[in-house]
């Protein structure tokens, strides 16, 4: 086990923390050695701290049950036990910004699932298949923080994963205007139906802050590193509505696109299924072999059939057809707590390790 990097999970008892724990079981490169959470959980075993709140559909891994939960606020103490951390802490945005920087300043890389640092100019926000070159900005961030190996990297919001990769695959056709409506699962709010019975048979047409993230974050991903910061792209312009629906896992998007160079359906499908990035080239442990699949059936993608495509790390697309107002429209589906949260962060960490940014202390 000693050759594996030692990993800590900040916010380990919450839903995304639990997803990290389950995804990292038997990981070939990483081993969870430290779990940290709020002071009220500290001192208990992980199994005691989570109690009856284990929300994954697979059992709690044996390897973590008896780990004693550390106090996430005891930064130096936690950092001393690990090579890097995943952050899924549940705090205010300002508190998250502060604590993630504190960990980075102990020379501990932080790979975060949180939104707090997504717009910090020198913090890379990465989907590894799309913009791994944004990790180059880490060198500027280290200068600001005064670190040699400590830094923060983040992954983007779960809601954009069902359409931003698709638009990236179609870049050569110059999409310039996009309308997207996302139908988002309740696990995106850290809930199950047991926690949120009023969602059964219900739709809520509002998710706080989500529409702004869904419109702006893709532009940052498509931006360029200039003068040590990331300058967002200006196109395509995206307008979005985000709706909470009675589904446990899986965000679906209905999307309309205008192109400057209008492609054929065959060209669009070919671009999707052939699209790959650095994780596929490097054959990283969590990388989907097929990043985007296209489904020909009229009634796909469906959450029950397709959300676990490539172990939840792939994107499913269907219903691609010409539109009467826009050029083309499609439906996309991604797993919001795997690709959209913990899995996306694990893939970021694997990419960072492959590029030499994360090493044993």
From TrEMBL:
Coiled coil, from the record: none
CDD domains found in the cross-reference section: ASADH_C_arch_fung_like (cd18130), ScASADH_like_N (cd02315)
Keyword NADP: yes
First-level EC class: oxidoreductase
GO molecular function, one term: NADP binding
Domain Semialdehyde dehydrogenase NAD-binding: 6-138
Active site: 158, 251
Domain of life, source organism: Bacteria
Keyword field contains Transit peptide: no
Keywords, alphabetical: NADP, Oxidoreductase
GO biological process: methionine biosynthetic process; threonine biosynthetic process
Enzyme Commission code(s) on record: 1.2.1.11
SMART domains: Semialdhyde_dh
Family per record: Belongs to the aspartate-semialdehyde dehydrogenase family.
Protein name (record): Aspartate-semialdehyde dehydrogenase 2
Origin species: Blautia wexlerae
Name of the coding gene: asd2
